[in-house]
Design a protein that fits this description.
By secondary structure, chain A is an alpha+beta fold. Helix content of chain A is about 25%, strand content about 25%. The termini of chain A are far apart. The chains are: A alpha+beta, B alpha+beta. At the A-B interface, α1, α2, β1, β2 and β3 of A face β13, β16, β19, β20 and α4 of B.
Chain lengths: ~260, ~325
């Protein structure tokens, strides 16, 4: 196929709209727009097109446990109600992406997709105990991060280990868990230039903390290292941390 | 068991199939063949289902030979393959005898090509796929690139006859049709205009995770960072330095940068074939135009795969197989 020629044919210079009115192509543009408009009217919250295969809904703009619970409840509802129609359902902090298997069904899906869900009652969360060696060669950025926060390294570590952190989502790399409830005093900027850090690195950036599941490039600051295994590809449930779980960091070593 | 012996691997040769799909919610991008159309044609030419594993190469292809038995192979894409020193007829499979050398040179039209073997590459499958995903450490030998001297075993198969089909042109276009997303509202009017009107150059640092674009730096007015949001194949992310990049099939599944445009899914093969230093422009289209584009691309692929037929002239091994099956 001559891709340039195809594109020229589909988007003639006098604008796509006039062109399509004269020469309707399948699926009918008017019907599609009607469906999308109907979907918008029914819902205050709107699905937004995200390319020609996916829709995104935003439930908020902040890292908030209640919003995040609703995102996961909505993801579960869509997975169940639209089984066989989605290629991917990807929840994030406060937004959700649904990719359709057949792009021609996207408008139909948009008209039917729910935009709200009742979060599951907060059950007792699984708490994972993660033992960390802080500072020294295991956590080269600890002194700088503590200084930026105006704390001593031991105060920084104590605050990092105080209380558990909720898993908001998995993303970025397989098994990488976004833990979002970091003490605001520990909020530090990302590095200007990302650099390679090894698997097991315990990292912080802004009000988030996490553990690297593999050797990866990261702009987050490395404050420690753990032997905790995040991904077991040979198991039937390969990803150890799941949204809704909690992580309790435990300091086993603090190098000066 | 027959196997493929990699005499020279070339710069970016990996084992790929159609990828691990549906794991975005755990942070795992699909990986798999970037140019699905060429991958599918190559697999069809050796009688495999389209989800079998083959080799993907970029910039330059590998030099291979068969060990432990003959192997039915096909190459899709540019790269001027030569079998035993003679140019190979494009869009057909051929028996590679032990000791015979298949040499794939530099790719001049497009950027990526595919080598398929009948029976597929018999590497271990993880989460339902054999695709290499380097950052995740998934796939054959941790998803690493092939090196000189590697040996890859080939699966069992019943395909004995060589096949050919009508040629499928390399997907090529200097214009990338894309849809605006809700994120575009957070860019200034000037930045939106610059994104659409500027000409961008594909950076040599591009890889299977993203096509990096060099050109005018977008003035993003400091609105770039938001809380992390899902990404998709073809998302145009505008990073902190104002340079856009197009996420591909091995990119991050969520990201905190704005994604004001998403390239049409029918153009994924074009993205796969963007060579470093080629120049591209974005072109805003609406949903119905995007759907028409992807339908046309799918239809062309289906037409090509439907033309797969016994190859002429066959090699003696293929001819004997045809005679044996006719005699039965």
């Amino acid at each position: 196929m001559n891709f340039d020629k195809l594109l020229a044919r589909r988007t003639a210079t006098n604008g796509p709209h006039r062109r399509f009115r004269r020469q309707p192509i399948w699926p009918p543009r008017a019907a599609m727009l009607q469906l999308l408009a109907a979907a918008r009217q029914r819902n205050m919250r709107q699905w937004q097109l995200f390319g020609d295969r996916a829709l995104v809904i935003e439930l908020g703009q902040t890292i908030d446990p209640a919003i995040n619970r609703e995102v996961h409840a909505l993801a579960a509802r869509i997975r169940a109600e639209f089984a066989g129609q989605w290629a991917a359902v990807v929840p994030a902090y406060a937004s959700l992406l649904v990719e359709a298997i057949d792009p021609a069904q996207l408008a139909d899906m948009a008209a039917q997709l729910p935009t709200a869900a009742e979060p599951a009652p907060a059950a007792a969360a699984t708490v994972h105990r993660v033992e960390v060696r802080y500072g020294g060669p295991s956590g080269p950025d600890l002194p700088a991060a503590a200084a930026a926060a105006g704390l001593s390294p031991s105060e920084f570590v104590a605050a990092h280990c105080a209380g558990s952190h909720g898993v908001y989502m998995l993303g970025f790399a397989p098994g990488f868990a976004y833990l979002g409830d970091l003490d605001p005093r520990l909020s530090v900027d990302r590095l200007a230039t990302p650099r390679r850090a090894k698997a097991g690195s315990v990292i912080v950036a802004g009000r988030q903390t996490s553990i690297l599941p593999a050797d990866l490039l990261t702009g987050w600051r490395v404050i420690g290292c753990t032997d905790f295994t995040l991904v077991k590809f040979s198991h039937s449930e390969p990803f150890v941390l799941q949204p809704g779980d909690r992580v309790q960091f435990v300091c086993t070593e603090l190098a000066a | 068991m027959a196997a493929l012996h990699i005499l020279a691997a070339g710069p970016h040769c990996t084992v790929q199939d159609r990828g691990r799909r549906g794991f975005g919610h755990v942070g795992l991008a699909a990986a798999g063949a970037l140019d699905e159309r060429l991958h599918e044609v190559a697999q069809a030419l050796v009688g495999n289902p389209r989800d079998f594993a083959g080799l993907e190469f970029a910039a330059a292809g590998p030099t291979v030979t068969a060990v432990g038995g003959a192997v039915l192979v096909a190459v899709a894409g540019d790269g001027h393959p030569r079998l035993g020193g003679l140019p190979m007829q494009p869009f057909r499979s051929v028996w590679l005898e032990p000791g015979q050398i298949l040499e794939i040179a530099g790719v001049s039209a497009g950027f990526r090509g595919y080598l398929a073997v009948a029976g597929g590459l018999a590497v271990a499958s993880t989460l339902g796929s054999r695709a290499s995903h380097a950052a995740a450490g998934l796939g054959w030998q941790g998803g690493r690139r092939l090196r000189d001297g590697d040996i890859l075993e080939v699966g069992d198969h019943r395909q004995l006859q060589e096949l050919q089909c009508d040629p499928l042109p390399i997907a090529h276009s200097a214009r990338l049709p894309a849809l605006w997303t809700g994120h575009a509202n957070e860019l200034t009017r000037a930045a939106r205009a610059a994104l659409i009107e500027s000409e961008w150059t594909v950076s040599p640092q591009s890889d299977r995770a993203a096509v990096l674009l060099d050109g005018a730096s977008l003035d993003t007015g400091g609105t770039l960072q938001r809380i992390s949001q899902p990404t998709t194949f073809g998302s145009v992310q505008v990073a902190g330095d104002g340079q856009p990049r197009i996420l591909l099939c091995e990119g991050p599944t969520v990201g905190g940068y704005l994604q004001p445009l998403v390239v049409c899914s029918g153009w994924r093969s074009v993205l796969a074939q963007l060579a470093p230093a080629s120049r591209v422009r974005f072109h805003a289209v609406d949903l119905s135009a995007a759907l028409a584009i992807s339908q046309a691309a799918d239809a062309e692929l289906a037409r090509t795969v439907a033309t797969v037929r016994p190859a002429w002239p066959p090699t003696s091994r293929s001819l004997l197989a045809a005679m044996a099956s006719a005699g039965r």
